[in-house]
Design a protein that fits this description.
seven-stranded mixed beta sheet, eight-stranded mixed beta sheet, 2 domains, alpha/beta, Rossmann fold, Hypothetical Protein, Haloacid Dehalogenase-like Hydrolase, Chain: A, domain 2
Length: 342
């Protein structure tokens, strides 16, 4: 049934997603409603707000201890996926998988913080790490995977998602929406699969992994949408889309790959999802260590005092990081955790 979340059915069928590169924001941040319909996931009642406005929360680098002081202090590690935890082949290395397992044995929880949705998690990540927590769709959903409980949801409002779709539908391009851990498009959008902007491999992946509905506007009208994604457009078209979407309220626009746009609720960032876990696990912000490589990781780096940039990180991330480590193809996350946490 549409809307029913079940992590177990995804654990053996993960697929690779897109890499992450940069982020920008627009609109106002306000609380989003939570779907309490029968088809919605189970929710844990949180006693305090889980979303921190990362644009006004900062920690001075001078107050950050040296990494050798982290051992015994960190209780939760949160890592971006593409360009950070995963290699360029979109898989997790044996060393990194083993390190995540070692963290758990040492009482340190681990979560991914990604723009991907549940059905797009890599197969070996789920199988080899016994993944417990996940912040998905840029913070739109936060999961306790082992208990199959959705801890928080930050969907787009109906008015916002409709406004975004109207802008996108006016142009000859493909786009999709994320709902219940899956990607959906409609017949009108499928014609743009043939666009020369997409590689043959990307076209095959899109056809296999996207559900097609008769009409996307009708589909979103009755559902809480996590994110709208436009995978590829020319620079000129991107500029026009940004101009037309700028007036839409309660919207964050992110760029997670060259030429793409992702649209989330105005209060939806990876920080919101991680903070749901912080409360769920009864932690403090300085007990969290975050890893990232690109622009949509900036809110994490601005909020949590212990942040680690990959060697392949973009300059803006590297400048904000408290610490640095190796690149994603050289087990940078594992290298740092082994040296300073285990």
């Amino acid at each position: 049934m549409l809307g029913t979340h079940n992590y177990k059915r995804y654990a053996g069928s993960g697929n690779a997603g897109n890499s992450t590169s940069s982020v920008s924001t627009t609109g106002n941040s306000t609380s989003a409603s939570v779907d309490t319909a029968e088809s919605a996931p189970a929710l844990v009642s949180l006693t305090t707000p889980v979303c921190v406005d990362s644009r006004t929360t900062h920690f001075a680098r001078s107050s950050t201890p040296t990494p050798d002081k982290l051992r015994g202090k960190i209780k939760l590690v949160a890592s971006d996926l593409d360009g950070t935890l995963l290699t360029d082949a979109s898989c997790i290395s044996p060393r990194t998988a083993q390190t995540i397992c070692r963290l758990a044995k040492n009482g340190i929880d681990f979560t991914i913080a990604t723009g991907r949705i549940l059905s797009r998690l890599p197969l070996n990540l789920c199988r080899e790490t016994d993944l417990h927590y996940a912040v998905l769709a840029n913070g739109a959903e936060t999961w306790d995977l082992k208990r199959n409980i959705c801890l928080s949801t930050l969907p787009l409002s109906g008015a916002t998602v409709t406004a975004v779709l109207r802008v996108l539908a006016a142009f000859p391009l493909y786009f999709e929406v994320y709902f219940a851990g899956e990607a959906y498009t409609d017949n009108a959008r499928r014609q743009f699969y043939r666009d020369s902007l997409y590689s043959p491999a990307k076209l095959i992946d899109m056809r296999r992994s996207r559900h097609t509905v008769p009409d996307l506007f009708e589909f979103v009208a009755a559902r809480k949408i996590s994110k709208v994604v436009m995978p590829q457009a020319t620079p000129e078209l991107l500029a026009e889309l940004d101009r037309k979407c700028a007036p839409i309220k309660d919207l964050i626009i992110t760029n997670s790959a060259f030429g793409n746009r992702e649209y989330n609720a105005g209060n939806c960032t990876k920080v919101a999802g991680i903070n749901a876990l912080v409360e769920y696990l009864h932690l403090q912000l300085d007990e969290v260590l975050v890893f990232g490589d690109a622009g949509n990781d900036l809110p994490m780096f601005a909020t949590f005092p212990h942040s680690v940039a990959m060697a392949n990180a973009t300059p803006n991330i590297a400048a904000k990081a408290a610490y640095r480590t190796g690149n994603n193809n050289a087990d940078g996350v594992a290298e740092f955790c082994e040296a300073y946490l285990l």
